[in-house]
Design brief:
alpha+beta, two-stranded antiparallel sheet, 7 helices, 29% helix
Length: 241
């Protein structure tokens, strides 16, 4: 006998394995359960399907070209050992992956798609040797050849007001003040459609129609609308629970 476990095994063998009662192991659960930030994000994920959007999941890696095309924080941080050449940067925005999800759905028979994703984006800290700044974010994308139909009225294509309505409904379901919208011009949004989202007086996100010069190379044949908002600012007034 070299280990304590060896002695336990010998005692159990002589006693008889069949005489040892079967019991479930005890689990110790912390009273607080999941951390409050996780609970808040889960409430967002539960609210968005009630607004008509389906959840998408993507990797936190992307390409520098995608980050520069649809983001505002440059090419992003280079990963030391990337999975592939096209996934060698930490994403600075959720929009590239979500738009590719939209294209995939439309290319596989969907007349219209409305998608959302929650996840972290990563921005360089600006200080050598420091970890990137991480931020929990919510992104939405919608588009397609046909709109959602109802028996009482003709169908219509998705537009910017669908995103606005979804964010306002989500805010109401969560019990927070909805964001305000101000006109803004961003290079990856069609001129005249861009909007800056603000929570109170603080900038919190963006929304608008994807610029055709970007939609075309991505494979989007029709108009697509996107929004991206900081969950930290969106949920700042949310009560714990």
């Amino acid at each position: 006998l070299a280990l304590e476990e060896d002695l336990v095994e010998e005692v159990a063998r002589h006693h008889g394995y069949d005489r040892i009662p079967t019991t479930l192991p005890r689990l110790l659960l912390f009273p607080e359960g999941r951390p409050e930030p996780d609970r808040r994000i889960q409430r967002v994920r539960e609210a968005m399907p009630r607004c008509g959007f389906t959840e998408a999941l993507n990797l936190s890696l992307g390409s520098g070209a995608d980050n520069e095309m649809l983001g505002r924080a440059g090419a992003g941080l280079l990963v030391t050992n990337p999975l592939s050449e096209g996934q060698d940067r930490l994403r600075t925005t959720l929009l590239p992956g979500l738009l590719r999800n939209l294209v995939h759905n439309l290319n596989h028979g969907a007349a219209e798609a409305r998608l959302f994703e929650t996840g972290r984006i990563f921005r360089p800290s600006g200080k050598p040797g420091h970890l990137p700044e991480e931020e929990e974010t919510l992104a939405l994308a919608c588009g397609g050849k046909e709109g959602m139909k109802h028996w009482s009225e003709p169908g219509r294509r998705a537009d910017l007001f669908d995103l606005k309505g979804a964010l306002e409904l989500a805010a109401r379901l969560l019990g927070v003040t909805p964001p305000t919208w101000e006109p803004a011009e961003l290079p990856f949004l069609r001129p005249g459609t861009g909007a800056l989202l603000k929570m109170g007086k603080s900038p919190a996100g963006l929304a608008g129609e994807v610029n055709p010069s970007i939609a075309g190379p991505l494979g989007l044949e029709d108009s697509a609308f996107v929004a991206e908002i900081s969950l930290v600012r969106f949920l700042a007034d949310l009560e714990p629970g």
